[in-house]
Amino acid sequence: MAKLSTLALVPILVPQAIWVAWRAVRLPEADGPRTGVAGAGPEHRLLIAGDSSAAGVGVADQDTALSGRLVARLSETSNVNWAVVAKSGWTSRQLLQALELLPPARVETVVIAVGVNDVKNGVRLAQWVQTYGAILDTLQTKHEARRIVASGVPPLGAFPLLPSPLRHVLGDRALRFDTALSALCAQREAVIHLPFDRPLDPSDMARDGFHPGPAIYDAWAEAVAGAMTPSS
């Protein structure tokens, strides 16, 4: 029934999607290094991988992006050797290809942020789950990841940039993708699904109405650090 309803809305959704693409503010990825070492104590190798949110789009520099905020927390007790492998616009398939090209390296923690582009680009849910599973396989076998934090697909239905009914259609798809992601993570050892469960205040978002602002990145880093604690 939901699929039939969506098909009926196609004459509205297509012009809205074109309008959003034309109107959207193009923000750059966060400036600054994508690798570094910080803190003292036991070594902790950290990889942040994904799309524009993993790359820090919406803030000026990596210090205020997910990488900087998370490293700041972890470096209080660890010597964090960190890297970001991310690019604006990447789908799960493109992230998988990038991870497959990396040389093998052992990592303690990987934080994944991918899915929004799959949702809005019309990637089939079953294909996304299959590709995400391949990402987890690559990280756990080739890169010996001890822990993976899979960031939940954000609630596109609350993004201020998107008009109705496009907002509701993408919001429903995002929810289905995140539900499937949660189920996938539950089947894997040492894979944590981290849902986006905080209220989304539009004032906390970047000026494009689509990407996180500093407050969201900081809260996200705090949530990741909290999710890591039980198995640390």
List the helices and strands and how they pair.
Elements: H1 2-8, H2 10-23, E1 35-38, E2 43-50, H3 52-55, H4 66-74, E3 79-86, H5 92-101, E4 109-113, H6 116-120, H7 125-141, E5 147-151, H8 166-186, E6 191-194, H9 214-228
Parallel strand pairs: 2-3, 2-4, 4-5, 5-6
Antiparallel strand pairs: 1-3
Description:
The structure is a single chain. By secondary structure, the protein is α/β, with parallel strands linked by helices. The chain has a single domain, classed as SGNH hydrolase (Rossmann fold). The chain has 9 helices and 6 strands, in the order ααββααβαβααβαβα. It has a 6-stranded mixed β-sheet, sandwiched between helices. α4 packs across α9.
> What count of structural domains?
1
Looking at CATH, which topology would you report?
Answer: Rossmann fold
Give the percentage of residues in beta strands: 5-15%
Largest sheet: 6 strands, mixed
Total beta strand runs: 6
Give the C-level CATH assignment: Alpha Beta
CATH architecture: 3-Layer(aba) Sandwich
| Sequence stretches where pLDDT stays below 50 over 5 or more residues | 1-20
Q: Could you give the order of strands across the largest sheet? A: 1-3-2-4-5-6
Distance between the termini: 44 Å
Question: What integer value in Å does the Rg equal?
Answer: 17 Å
Structural class: alpha/beta
